Amino acid sequence: MSIIRIHDKNFKPYITAEAIRKKVAELAEALNKDYKEKNPVFIAILNGSFIFAADLFKELTIDAEISFIKLASYKGMKSGGQVITSIGLDTEIFGRHVVIIEDIVDTGKTLNEFLPQLQHQQPASLKIVALLHKPEATIYPMKVDYSGFEIPDKFVVGYGLDYNGLGRNTPAIYQLLE
Ligand code: 5GP
Fold first, then answer.
1. What distance in angstroms lies between residue 1's CA and the mean position of ligand 1's atoms?
2. What CATH number has the domain bearing residue 45?
3. What is the C-alpha to C-alpha distance for residues 106 and 80, in angstroms, rounded to an integer?
4. What atom of ligand 1 comes closest to residue 108's alpha carbon?
5. Domain of 100, in residue numbers
6. Structure confidence by residue, pLDDT tens digits, 96-134
7. C-alpha torsion sign, points 20, 54, 93, 105
8. 145 is catalytic
9. What is the Å distance from ligand 1's center to 106 Cα?
């Protein structure tokens, strides 16, 4: 694997496709065990989580449903600003076991604003699975129940994650080269 260029920035290989595949299988194994016979509803947060959500969902062997919601708090390489909901949730979650699928938890702002909206609908339980977590970047404390990789506070792309629209279509994850 070599350095890739997206817009004006260079990115170096950081997490291989194989390491991601293994981690996704581990996360799915834990979910298969914990949600057996609970028929959970997964809610994947678009856009960034679409590849992770698909790969994770394929590894589930239990009965499970999935729905999608579009939230965003990112412009360029900085998190923040207003969290916008542009596609609403079309699934009834009252009394259901809900698992949010996130690509990456950074400041925690997105989930901090979204989770109360879901809690309001009284799910039986509400947990988070995230492929990546940047604990150093946390501003809004957030418990990531199923965390894939804990990474430093550096910008990453690939495997669904973009830099200004590009870079989502790589099987590996790349880190900004400074
Ligand atoms: P938070 O609200 O936790 O600050 O940010 C969550 C969202 O910001 C993620 O779902 C993701 O879309 C975006 N994000 C956070 N860190 C990164 C990063 O390093 N790279 C990319 N491409 N997006 C990120």
1. 24
2. 3.40.50.2020
3. 10
4. 3
5. 20-151
6. 999 999 999 999 988 998 899 899 999 999 999 999 999
7. positive
8. no
9. 5
